[in-house]
Design goal:
By secondary structure, this protein is α/β, with parallel strands linked by helices. Helices cover 40% and strands 14% of the residues. The protein folds into two domains: 3-211 and 332-381, Crotonobetainyl-coa:carnitine coa-transferase, domain 1 (Rossmann fold), CATH 3.40.50.10540; 239-320, formyl-coa transferase, domain 3, CATH 3.30.1540. It has helices at residues 23-33, 63-69, 82-94, 106-110, 114-120, 145-151, 154-157, 171-194, 204-211, 213-222, 256-266, 281-286, 288-299, 304-314, 324-328, 331-335, 375-381; strands at residues 14-18, 37-42, 73-76, 97-100, 125-130, 198-203, 239-244, 247-252, 317-319, 339-342, 349-352. The strands form three sheets. It has a six-stranded parallel sheet with strand order 3-2-1-4-5-6, sandwiched between helices. It is elongated and about 80 Å long.
Length: 387
């Protein structure tokens, strides 16, 4: 362990990660950033297949892999071979956490299901991430991010009335990885009290469906099926992006006080606030077509700068609809010094500081490992030497 890790919250913990793609690597990278010794176990035939997703960084390193795997140690093991499987068993014996996102049943066939690991290590926190969970009729169904977005109903909520769309980031993978991470932290706290490990089973479907609860309540409680409304809100009006003289302006109304300030200061039409067609959010939702057409007609002679100035005076929440180049150059990220660098086999690459923001525990922005970079080192720690 490096001495700089002693100040970090997860320093001294060992996480064994039998992982690939996004969900489990996203989970274990949070652990690495906060000081855990994360040992990434990779196959000999190319390792984590996210290594080959792209070559965006310096024309040689996958941007996805760089994002998900800094600060880890990579060991190459072929778990179908006796020596390598025995080495993996020694890793489990010494681990605090084992996280994997192999298909349901895969780790069991290798001999490292929960019960088998528990017999080796009573304090182990065993965490499996899968598409649909370890049982049920969908147990063995293949699950990738877009497919789970579709299955969970998220795609039905995203896009325009004419065309559905998936969310533009890997939201099913990310949410399951983050629930896995937070569940592991909870299990570590519980272990301090009980001395016992825990089994955690994370379902990508369940994680993403949890996020659709308000829309399900809309259907279950009011009988309304949420509509796709593009860059608008399905249940609050006005809320979203509206066309003005030189593009789009984005703003959000959360309550009646804000609605009145919007009418008085931005629309310069105080009487509109009490118009019975728009007096409450339910009224505005019922008459949204008429109201939103009026808003865009009113905005058609105003620039974004003029509208944003009025929004700021009225204390109405608003935002610029940025593209990715604009986000990279975002002044708030620059002002808060969020950009740093991470080392890799192909040189330093830009990296965002993780948003944990613990005041007294700055994250460890570790190197992105080459495939098998730490195999000999880790085997030596286990008292093993590969022939």
């Amino acid at each position: 362990m490096r001495s700089s890790e002693t100040i970090l919250p997860l320093s001294g913990l060992r996480v064994v990660a039998l992982e690939q793609a996004v969900s489990a690597p996203f989970c274990s990278r949070q652990c690495a950033d906060l000081g855990a010794d994360v040992i990434k176990v990779e196959r000999p035939d190319g390792g984590d297949f996210a290594r080959a997703y792209d070559s965006d960084m310096h024309g040689a390193l996958s941007g996805h892999f760089a994002w998900l795997n800094r600060g880890k140690r990579s060991i190459v093991l072929d778990l179908k071979q006796d020596f390598d499987r025995a080495a993996f068993g020694k890793l489990i014996d010494r681990a605090d956490v084992f996280v994997h996102n192999l298909a349901p049943g895969a780790v069991e066939r290798l001999g490292f299901g929960y019960e088998a690991c528990l017999a080796r290590n009573l304090r182990l926190i065993w965490c499996g991430i899968s598409g649909y969970g370890p049982d049920g009729p969908y147990r063995d169904k293949k699950a990738y991010d877009m497919l789970v977005q579709a299955e969970s109903g998220v795609v039905s909520l995203t896009g325009t009335p004419q065309a559905a769309a998936k969310v533009g980031v890997s939201v099913a993978d990310i949410t399951s990885g983050m629930y896995a991470y937070s569940s592991i932290l909870a299990a570590l706290l519980q272990r301090q009290r009980t001395g016992a490990g825990e089994r955690i089973d994370i379902s990508m479907l369940e994680c993403l469906v949890e996020w659709t609860t308000p829309q399900m309540y809309m259907y279950q409680g009011a009988g309304r099926v949420p509509a796709r409304v593009g860059i608008r809100h399905s249940g609050i009006v006005p809320y979203g992006a509206y066309t003005c003289a030189d593009g789009l302006v984005t703003f959000a109304i959360q309550n009646q006080r804000e609605w009145r300030r919007l009418c008085e200061t931005v629309f310069e039409n105080a009487a509109l606030a009490d118009d019975p067609r728009y007096a409450t959010n339910a009224d505005r939702l019922k008459n949204r077509g008429e109201l939103e057409s009026w808003i865009e007609q009113y905005f058609s002679t105003l620039s974004r700068a003029e509208i944003v100035e009025r929004m700021e005076r009225a204390e109405i929440a608003n935002a610029v609809l940025n593209d990715i180049p604009a986000v990279v150059a975002h002044p708030q990220l620059a002002a808060r010094h969020r950009w740093t660098e991470a080392d890799s086999a192909v040189g330093a690459i830009p990296a965002l500081l993780p948003p944990h923001n613990l005041q007294h525990a700055p994250p460890r922005m570790g190197k992105i490992p080459a495939l098998g970079e730490h195999t000999k080192e880790i085997l030596a720690e286990l008292g093993l030497k590969h022939d």
